[in-house]
Write a structure and sequence with these properties.
Low-confidence stretches: none
Structural class: mainly alpha
Number of strands: 0
Largest sheet: none
Order of helices and strands: HHH
Strand content: under 5%
Mean pLDDT: 90
Length: 68
């Protein structure tokens, strides 16, 4: 799964990323960072797809009624 591979890569690069952030941030200590898959985005995408399909069906029904 592409998401799992990306997450694994980010987790493996955490120390490097923190080091790079530390160069740019004016903080005494760089906070710990944690990466995780945002499942809410996938859920939102699925809902948007369903809503779009419903809208398309309603539009097609209106077109069919107008053609009768």
């Amino acid at each position: 799964d592409q998401q799992k591979k990306a997450l694994k890569g980010l987790k493996n690069a955490t120390k490097f990323i923190r080091g790079e952030l530390g160069k740019d941030l004016k903080l005494r200590y760089v906070p710990n960072i944690e990466f995780m898959i945002d499942e809410d985005l996938e859920h939102q995408y699925k809902l948007l797809k369903i809503i779009t399909e419903i809208d398309d069906q309603q539009l097609n029904l209106k077109k069919d009624k107008n053609n009768e």
